[in-house]
Q: What sequence folds into this?
């Protein structure tokens, strides 16, 4: 399902994804808290103004007004940076959006270390926070194709749907004709019998980079992309884990409460299984700067990841 | 016309007395937020039996959003008269396993939102009002919250939004009883002057005696006639207003335990008043 050609780069994926969706779905209300420019909502704002609502720099209001809008027949998509949606307005997400049947979509941009600013702008815990809400849906798409298809599913999913968004230069890695996003489904991007890599979101991009280096070195491995963090298909993940002696998880998130924790919970429920090495933000305050710099500082750049996975394959 | 107006007020006063009776009947089973329910009976009578327009499905065309969950007791007292709940159902209030929640969850009949995490009703009501207006609906949206709730920042974010958007289909009703969980609002963190604060956020505002049917009706009418602005009615109320024998004992009650009051004396006084209407 990966494109056979070199990936192209989309400079503003959400601008056309949101415009396309709002053009097809007149019941969608795209909302912002003074970050339309920075989450790349330009065309909807200018060309479909009735489907765009900016509540100003007030994220608790963004989420709770959106919850009201959903109770009057619209499907709101509340957008802001992931840190503000989840940390600033967590109670509103849980109580106003999470307790009823109406569809309420929240897209959190620049998650994890994808924001150049430091702690205050980095949401390293958003996936864990929202997956702790009963009945919530949590999605961390890996590229433009995944993002676009997942959003189409999100607007028809009852209850609170939290998605991570991509802005700026974002690769198109998946073939839109061969990939079909389904909630809870996992996607094998490479098969092999050595180390089993499980990744989500930006982590899947990083895993693919590491995978290329490992392939050059002849290190046998497989790669599973898990875009849906909740509801999760436990059987697909446990079957994958139990087919390997070593599992490495890779995520743009604190290794506490995120994908790695989720995989460990699934395996521990069965009571035996592979060793699980969790790679991501290692429960520290990450530095600021460019994404390559931050990745290098946290040993999440491709060479460091490949080295760690190769060492794991030797049982280290 | 004057006779009609007097008759309308008299009918609503009778309804408010029945709501007070229902509140005591419900709360005497296991305790509850009886003081607020009794105090809000006049507002409930006007809202559910005069101001909100009925639909064709035994419910309402207009929409009511309860923000402070513990004031659900007011709604229960009213809906017993409206017919959506029986007193038998309502007497399970505050019992283990009841479906009559002290602070309702979205989906419970009669309640638009999950109430109780204070400060979140005004913005959800504003969202509903914005969307209804966008759809060309003439529905009016009413939201009840309390003076203590004004200490929540989310309320003022909502007020700023509603004023900016000129949501003239939105009416905030504030139960302004100068009481919150641990004392007098003015002592914990003063919120006055409430009408003036909302006016600076773009509202039309009116302070009334929240236990006067005539003043409540007048305020609702003024709200309906207000153009290009949301409206806030700041209702000065007194805990247990209209049930003197209990008010004399518990003038500042936040939550009333079953054993702390002579419920029967209050019920008897209200039944006598009802029979004398």
A:
């Amino acid at each position: 399902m990966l494109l056979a050609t070199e990936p192209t780069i989309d400079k503003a994926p959400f601008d056309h994804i949101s415009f396309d969706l709002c053009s097809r779905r007149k019941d969608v209300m795209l909302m912002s808290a003074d970050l339309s420019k920075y989450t790349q909502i330009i065309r909807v704002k200018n060309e479909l103004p009735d489907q765009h609502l900016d509540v100003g720099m007030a994220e608790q209001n963004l989420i709770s007004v959106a919850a009201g809008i959903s109770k009057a027949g619209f499907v709101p998509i509340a957008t802001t940076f992931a840190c503000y949606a989840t940390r600033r307005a967590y109670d509103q997400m849980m109580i106003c959006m999470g307790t009823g049947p109406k569809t309420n979509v929240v897209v959190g941009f620049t998650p994890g270390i994808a924001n150049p600013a430091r702690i205050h702008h980095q949401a390293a815990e958003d996936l864990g926070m929202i997956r702790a809400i009963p009945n919530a849906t949590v999605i961390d798409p890996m590229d433009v194709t995944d993002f676009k298809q997942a959003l189409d599913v999100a607007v028809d999913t009852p209850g609170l749907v939290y998605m991570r968004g991509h802005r700026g230069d974002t690769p198109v890695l998946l073939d839109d004709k061969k990939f079909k996003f389904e909630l809870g489904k996992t996607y094998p991007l490479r098969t092999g019998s050595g180390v089993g890599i499980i990744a989500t979101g930006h982590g899947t991009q990083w895993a693919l980079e590491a995978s290329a280096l490992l392939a050059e070195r002849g290190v046998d491995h497989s790669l599973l992309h898990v875009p849906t963090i909740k509801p999760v298909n436990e059987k697909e993940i446990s079957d994958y884990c139990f087919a390997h002696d070593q599992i490495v998880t890779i995520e743009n998130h604190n290794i506490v409460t995120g994908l790695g924790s989720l995989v460990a919970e699934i395996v521990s429920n069965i009571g035996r299984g592979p060793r699980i090495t969790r790679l991501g933000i290692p429960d520290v305050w990450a530095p600021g700067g460019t994404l390559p710099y931050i990745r290098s500082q946290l040993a999440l750049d491709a060479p460091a990841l490949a080295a760690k996975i190769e060492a794991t394959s030797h049982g280290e | 016309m004057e006779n009609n107006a007097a008759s309308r007020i008299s009918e609503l006063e009778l309804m408010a007395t029945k709501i007070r009776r229902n509140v005591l009947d419900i709360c005497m089973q296991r305790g509850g937020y009886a003081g607020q329910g009794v105090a809000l009976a006049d507002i409930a009578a006007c809202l559910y039996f005069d101001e909100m327009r009925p639909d064709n499905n035994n419910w309402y065309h207009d929409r009511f959003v309860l923000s402070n969950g513990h004031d659900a007791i007011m709604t229960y007292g009213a809906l017993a008269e409206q017919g959506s709940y029986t007193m038998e159902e309502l007497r399970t209030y505050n019992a283990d396993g009841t479906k009559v929640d002290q602070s309702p969850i979205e989906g419970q009949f009669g309640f638009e939102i999950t109430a109780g995490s204070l400060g979140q009703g005004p913005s959800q009501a504003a969202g509903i009002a914005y969307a209804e207006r966008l759809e060309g609906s003439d529905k009016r949206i009413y939201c009840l919250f309390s003076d203590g709730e004004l200490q929540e920042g989310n309320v003022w974010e909502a007020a700023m939004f509603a004023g900016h958007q000129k949501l003239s289909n939105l009416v905030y009703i504030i139960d302004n009883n100068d009481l919150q969980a641990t004392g007098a609002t003015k002592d914990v963190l003063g919120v006055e002057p409430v009408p003036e604060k909302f006016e600076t956020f773009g509202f039309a505002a009116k302070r009334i005696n929240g236990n006067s049917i005539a003043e409540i009706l007048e305020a609702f009418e003024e709200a309906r006639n207000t153009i290009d602005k949301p409206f806030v009615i700041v209702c000065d109320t007194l805990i247990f207003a209209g049930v003197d024998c209990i008010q004399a004992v518990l003038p500042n009650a936040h939550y009333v335990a079953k054993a702390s009051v002579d419920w029967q004396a209050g019920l008897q006084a209200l039944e006598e008043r009802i029979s004398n209407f």
